[in-house]
Amino acid sequence: MKKLFLSVCVLVVITFNYLQARTFETFCGADNNFVAMMDLEIEQGLLVWKDKTNVGIVPIRIGWGVMNNMEVGVKLPYIFIQNNDNDFGDLAIYQKFKFIEESKTSPALSGGFELDLPTGNVAEDRGNYSEYTSKKLDLKLFLSAGKDLAKVRVFSSLGANFINGGDESALEYTGGVNLILSKVFKLIGEVSGKKYSSNDYGWRSQGCAVPGFIYSPNEQINIKFSMPIGLNNRSYDYGVNIGINHSF
Q1: Is residue 204, in this structure, part of any structural domain at all?
Q2: Cα–Cα nearest to 192, from 128, 107, 132, 108
Q3: Residue 156's pLDDT is what?
Q4: Reported pTM
Q5: Distances in Å between the alpha carbon of 36 and those of 40, 100, 246?
Q6: Which positions ≥6 away from 187 have C-beta within 8 Å?
Q7: Is residue 205 part of a domain?
Q8: Rounded distance, CA 154 to CA 90, Å?
Q9: 29: domain range?
């Protein structure tokens, strides 16, 4: 795990000086910011959490700006689990579209879908990382909204996830606030969770509080750091989430 963490850090440092980035809005929800038209964006991160087992995920996302209000892309996570085989999770493809541009009187409103293809090879498919590895096709539909209010930006997203070909389902939500302290630094506080059902267990809930910050020392660099904290016994205990995105 230490070698993998160091490798991600080195990759982040190397790309800092060559690639441009757009602003982050949320850690866990659907973002209302889009890749610029004809731009290619690469986002990478590291999510590690403490649960009954130590779990880590290195998510990679590649997005393409078809138009300024339309984005398509792919996601591929690498999962490493304590005392288990490590491998890639499911490959996902997504499309999102901005229906309403933000104005003085209305928030930005976006939506889209994501298809998770059952391509993952992680041996164990239970636990808080099960969303990254399924036996059948997953379909997620989502809506998101965001609005600037003076020094504060308010955002939220809501998604319906049909898991394992519809055998299970989940309602996912995120809401939070960005507190803009300066041109280069802002704090983020959000609550994220999901209520999901399965034929075996019925309805269950997970939730976490996610405090963190975004640091943008210049127009080419945006870094986010957060520490998710589980809010019930079905959530992971705590974690660390680091991310950076770049467009070119």
Answers
A1: no
A2: 128
A3: 96
A4: 0.82
A5: 8, 16, 12
A6: 178, 179, 181, 211, 212, 213
A7: no
A8: 31
A9: 20-175
